[in-house]
Design goal:
Elements: H1 8-16, H2 23-36, H3 46-59, E1 63-67, H4 73-81, E2 86-91, H5 94-106, E3 113-117, H6 120-123, E4 131-136, H7 143-153, E5 154-163, H8 179-192, E6 197-202, E7 208-213
Parallel strand pairs: 1-2, 1-4, 2-3, 4-5
Antiparallel strand pairs: 5-7, 6-7
Helix pairs in contact: 2-5, 3-4
């Protein structure tokens, strides 16, 4: 479990008191580690996955959009929470999403998920459905671009979840000026200044912003 922002003992306790992933998600996590190597760190943690399933169940959305699918862990978790409707995934990698496709099939979720390949800054412009729930976990430098495209389509009362917003806590330290941390700091400030939304930043894993369109 990623727990960059918690004391190790607290992180262990949280892990022990969160419903564990099933065999399919554990297999996906293991395969991602094998095929992606260091890039496997891009996969969300199991507690984030549990949160995505539960928030989807609570909201009962008809249209969900995910920007950044990777090998499919988050999409499996979201799709499992759907009681109807469709999850629309946007990603650039045929290689990584080929793993996701196999796990959607294994989980019996293929009929709930559609995948569009290509730069989301382009493909999202052609998406014309009102969005109930969105999950953003893609290249950090383009977060502001994706944010505006999603906000334009997010219905009032809809929810956008953005991952990695705390960057292991480095965003709070001005001395950390590596590019990705700076980009996330700027994105967080952009969202906070947006009068269209209400924001709650959750200190889970690498940080997740819960952004509700007013």
């Amino acid at each position: 479990m990623k727990a960059y922002l918690l004391d190790p003992a607290v992180a262990r306790y949280v892990s022990e008191h969160t419903t564990a992933p099933d065999a399919l998600l554990r297999a996906l996590e293991q395969e991602t580690a094998q095929v992606a190597g260091e890039n496997s760190m891009m996969q969300i943690s199991f507690d984030q996955g549990r949160f995505l399933t539960m928030i989807t169940q609570v909201m009962a959305p008809e249209v969900v959009v995910e920007v950044g699918t990777f090998t499919g862990y988050s999409s499996v978790c979201i799709a499992r929470g759907l009681s109807g409707g469709t999850l629309h995934c946007f990603d650039v990698s045929e290689e990584w999403t080929s793993v996701a496709r196999r796990y959607w099939e294994r989980a019996g979720l293929s009929d709930r998920v559609t995948l569009t390949l290509g730069p989301a800054a382009d493909t999202l412009t052609r998406f014309d459905q009102p969005i109930d729930l969105a999950f953003l976990d893609a290249d950090k430098g383009n977060y502001p671009v994706y944010y505006e495209l999603l906000m334009d389509r997010l219905r009032p009362g809809g929810l956008l979840l953005a991952d990695n917003t705390l960057r292991r806590g480095w965003v709070a330290d001005p001395a950390h000026d590596e590019p990705t941390t700076v980009q996330m700091r700027q994105f967080n400030d952009l969202v906070m200044a947006d009068p269209r939304v209400t924001v709650l930043t959750l200190p889970v894993a690498d940080g997740m912003a819960m952004i509700r369109k007013n």
